């Protein structure tokens, strides 16, 4: 499947879909009345508010996520602050590396809808796609037709567009004469733009802070406390749901590229030598559509269907723990109503990966905007814990007793301190530090050299006379292999991180469950599953009874016709509607209507309340209700 | 009650309490390993992370809040962005007025623990309280004893400390020789410090934004869409739960004064002429401890106990809607386990109120830090909707059809355009605008003057010759009373805003439910009610069964003794513990232990699971379980 369709397989017409979500206030541009006001100047793109049904849908998705991951696996949930001091993000690499490549349109006085700044990779993508669509080679309609070689060339670039760095993007812009499509201006070469929002904390303005771009850093910094809380037992996971921020260069495409968004993230801490997973068997038969690195670099886009078990065995997925989470992600998406025929797992290309990741698979969902990254599963290795530990001096490791003591052979260097002191005087300490910091490989080769030549040069920083190394003879330096007994093992855990963009999932889900009644394209329905649907309109007394049972619902006492009310329910994705009419007063019976089939049953109020509660809890189904009620 | 006690009425020892919440990771200072690192410089005070039990307790309190308010009254919940463009907060008054008074300690080279900046009102409060505690009149121990008149004077200032503006605070600092208590330095006069975090959005740096200091503005800006969503029906409420930010000058006192915090806010939109509330009867008998403005200005602090009904009748509480919410707030606090003997409702003093409020009552909870504002109930009148409407030009009003057409008598001014044009030439338009903008009171007095003198002066801005008024004779201007028929009424709703600081409520609640076993002060218990307690430790199979029923729980498979495990459960506030032992394997029976009474029952696994689920749902009680199980 490569282009978006409605749930019933018809062409997806975005303008009808957008009219529904706007009319029903699922979400709306933030500060709309300001944006539309002639007095307002400034940039407020990429910010969205969720209205009542969107807010409820979002809460239900997060609730389902918590049950599926956090509660199911006893993950340790945290709520960390968004405001983050600069040194933390300096250490994590975000201050230096968390950037996109940006091109400025230098020609003043011609402001474009997208502003004067363009994200370089998106610019190239848009221009090449437009050329492919038009079938021409250049900027104008009259440009010569594209030949097959050029078409292949463009498609090849597009398939690996995420793999270009700044120089690569600059080269493409030059080679293919890429310009601002809105005004045909040439653009300046790409420069990096850091995506974090910056501020200062406290009254003195001397303490810079950023809004976190991900929830993970707060989790990592609590690692030692969490390990203690978990009574020292490994592996375990922490989890966090919270707002995160990225100052996108040029946000468009609605909810899919926003500057403030809800992330739900899991950090699973695992022994790097034991990446098996205890519950792997539960997901090993789940079938995943996998688009690996090699396939993409070959310019192809058709995923391979493999079970999690096969993919791990074939080493397409690196290890059991990563495979386990990819399987669990698919099951979660299925639970909340995502169309599985519109899901694929795509492996990141080498240059595309975040600076902290050593491998990454994205769960992508097909929408009318193309394939959208909704869940990222990164293997962050020991990167974060290592850098934070180095900066702060805090130990972020796991120590475990070995089942039995082990013998370790290692190279050891010893200095004759009696001779070194008088020989190097003030430099003696620098020499000693340099020797202590030699690694095993270096020691091994130095041992050979020392035996052969009787003297070696050791790189030594901080010498008084400004030279960079010292010569040590075998009288001063002694290198030998020794055997040491160890009773414990100390390691920095690796981190597997499934990271969920809740807003993107919510938007893609809405596209997936959208369809129209066959008789009229404007009669829209959102077939959201009962577990996540915002609410269930109902009459007053029944509403009160369901509320007491914890079932979210909405009463519609307007004077609208019954047809209009049902249409409203359909567009809100309301799975069940109860109608109270004259017969209710007379016989105490009410009508229960199911959204997708539009079929109705009639029965006593008590039976209907019990049926609704049962269906919400998952202990009853509409088919069973249909069978037993008239 | 004026000083903090444990739940069992013993002296509250903060160091023991803090040890428990720290040990059990309810919350912890953010970026702790950075704060403790010698490499770290900068300010990260006032930021806290919630660990697993704190995070669960917070989620349960928010869940209880949603059920009690949002679900119960069909409020329209929104999730709006934190990032807010400057014009919005300029219009709302926050850019100019959302500030605290700050004193700088000018002496360099002597950094104090609290930094170089002090919040003026807190500084005065701390110094005067210390003098009262010491019983001396000045900075040193040897200063003369306080006489009764001075003691009364100090107490009087403290009772109304929130009522001083910048000049008032400066005067107090001078008059009472208030100095930085940490180093005895004199401080500079107070200056305003804006409490909002500032940043910029987009790549051009030309668009300043702030982190919202409250969730309300996003709700107000969606008013028109919400009114439509609610099918035009009034009154109704919107609600929002989300992070908000205040760059506090000098945060101390743990969770009680933080720079990033969770707010749960309700904006109830009501016709200013109809502030009755349909469900007022449900709370009119609830008894509130009220500390009104007059009592405080008299220097007194003893609240008056009145029912909501009495307080509204006596006009102590302004109207039914405000009274309704104060009653509902008390019931909510009771639900989640707050000690009602440690609650009071305090009315804001005139200068203390936020710039947008015309009346405000705080629900304050007694803690070891004194009385803490946890819920604010402000009447924001039509302030916010009016200013946003004025800036944007968007209509933020309600139009309602009158039950029958009404006749309105009003003064009307008419200019003879044929004469005005030639007479005033270029100024004619300015004159016409000036006349159109005259209000009813002015028109009435002008009518009399015109009849008496035959000519009136009208203030007219923008005249060509720079003069400020024109003379209009009765030949040019005609003023008369006319009768007009109107079919609709248009009004800007008033807003009643109950605003909940979730972190403060959580902290105060923890203090309220804390006590020690009589035999040992270090054996701490947190008697959190079942509805909000973080979790319920349990053995594996039972854990799985309860999880399927949606009951959050935690399994403890450590090798710790049963006594240590129960102690851990007590400190986590875990209401029920299940123990699986050798008898379980033999007879299939397990032990269920209740936290507060430490009593245990033993029974088959099925019965115990059913009992736990029943107690969590509120359909069963521990007393009933005790009665039917051995």
From TrEMBL, chains A, B:
Keywords: Aminoacyl-tRNA synthetase, ATP-binding, Cytoplasm, Ligase, Nucleotide-binding, Protein biosynthesis, Transferase. InterPro entries: aa-tRNA-synth_II, aa-tRNA-synth_II/BPL/LPL, Anticodon-bd, Anticodon-bd_dom_sf, Gly-tRNA_synthase/POLG2, GlyRS-like_core, tRNA-synt_gly. It is an enzyme of class 6 (ligase). It comes from Staphylotrichum tortipilum. PROSITE patterns: AA_TRNA_LIGASE_II. The keyword Cytoplasm applies. The keyword Ligase applies. This is glycine--tRNA ligase. CDD domains: GlyRS-like_core. Homodimer. One of its GO terms (biological process) is mitochondrial glycyl-tRNA aminoacylation.
């Amino acid at each position: 499947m490569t282009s978006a369709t409605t749930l019933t397989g018809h062409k997806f017409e975005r303008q009808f879909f957008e009219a529904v979500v706007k009319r029903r206030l699922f979400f709306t541009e933030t500060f709309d009345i300001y944006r539309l006001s002639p007095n307002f100047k400034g940039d407020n793109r990429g910010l969205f508010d969720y209205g009542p049904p969107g807010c409820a849908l979002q809460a239900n998705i997060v609730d389902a996520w918590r049950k599926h991951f956090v509660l199911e696996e006893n993950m340790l949930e945290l709520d960390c602050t968004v405001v983050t001091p600069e040194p933390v993000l300096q250490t994590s690499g975000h201050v230096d590396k968390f950037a996109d490549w940006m091109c400025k349109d230098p020609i003043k006085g011609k402001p474009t809808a997208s502003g004067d700044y363009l994200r370089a990779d998106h610019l190239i993508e848009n221009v090449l796609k437009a050329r492919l669509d038009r079938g021409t080679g250049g900027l104008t309609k009259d440009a010569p037709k594209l030949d097959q070689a050029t078409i292949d060339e463009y498609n090849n670039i597009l398939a690996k567009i995420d793999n270009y760095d700044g120089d690569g993007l600059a080269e493409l812009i030059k080679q293919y004469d890429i310009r601002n499509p809105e005004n045909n201006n040439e653009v300046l070469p790409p420069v990096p733009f850091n995506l974090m929002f910056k501020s200062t904390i406290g009254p003195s303005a001397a303490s810079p802070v950023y809004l976190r771009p991900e929830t993970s850093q707060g989790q990592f910094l609590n690692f030692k406390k969490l390990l203690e809380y978990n009574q020292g037992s490994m592996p375990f996971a922490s989890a966090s749901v919270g707002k995160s921020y990225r100052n996108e260069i040029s946000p468009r495409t609605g909810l899919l590229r926003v500057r403030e968004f809800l992330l739900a993230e899991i950090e699973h801490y695992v022994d790097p030598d034991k990446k098996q997973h205890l519950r792997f068997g539960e997901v090993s038969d789940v079938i995943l559509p996998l688009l690996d690195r090699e396939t993409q670099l070959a310019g192809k886009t058709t995923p391979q269907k493999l079970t999690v078990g096969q993919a791990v065995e074939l080493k397409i997925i690196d290890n059991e723990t990563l495979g386990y989470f990819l399987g669990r992600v698919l099951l979660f998406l299925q639970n909340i109503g995502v169309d599985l025929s519109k899901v694929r797992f795509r492996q990141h290309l080498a240059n595309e990966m975040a600076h902290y990741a050593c491998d990454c698979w994205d769960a992508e969902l097909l929408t009318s905007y193309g394939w959208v990254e909704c869940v990222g599963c990164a293997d962050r290795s020991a990167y974060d814990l290592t850098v934070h530990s180095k900066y702060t001096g805090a130990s972020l490791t796991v120590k475990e007793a070995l089942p039995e003591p082990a013998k370790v052979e290692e190279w050891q260097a010893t200095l004759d301190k009696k001779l070194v002191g008088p020989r190097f005087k003030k430099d003696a300490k620098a020499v000693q530090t340099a020797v202590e910091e030699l690694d095993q490989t270096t020691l091994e080769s130095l041992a050979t050299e020392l035996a052969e030549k009787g003297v070696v040069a050791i790189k030594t920083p901080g010498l008084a006379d400004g030279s960079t190394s010292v010569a040590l003879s075998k009288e001063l330096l002694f290198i030998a292999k020794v055997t040491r007994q160890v009773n414990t093992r100390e390691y920095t855990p690796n981190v597997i991180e499934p990271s969920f963009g809740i807003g993107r999932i919510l938007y893609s889900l809405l596209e997936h469950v959208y369809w129209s009644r066959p008789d009229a394209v404007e009669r829209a329905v959102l077939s959201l599953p009962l577990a996540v649907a915002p609410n269930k309109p109902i009459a007053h007394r029944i509403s009160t009874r369901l509320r007491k049972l914890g079932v979210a619902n909405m009463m519609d006492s307007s004077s609208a016709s019954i047809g209009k009310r049902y249409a409203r329910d359909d567009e809100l994705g309301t799975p069940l509607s109860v109608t109270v009419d004259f017969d209710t007063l007379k016989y105490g019976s009410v009508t229960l209507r199911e959204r997708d089939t539009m079929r109705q049953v009639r029965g006593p109020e008590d039976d209907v309340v019990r049926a609704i509660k049962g269906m919400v809890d998952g202990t009853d189904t509409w088919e069973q209700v249909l069978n037993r009620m008239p």
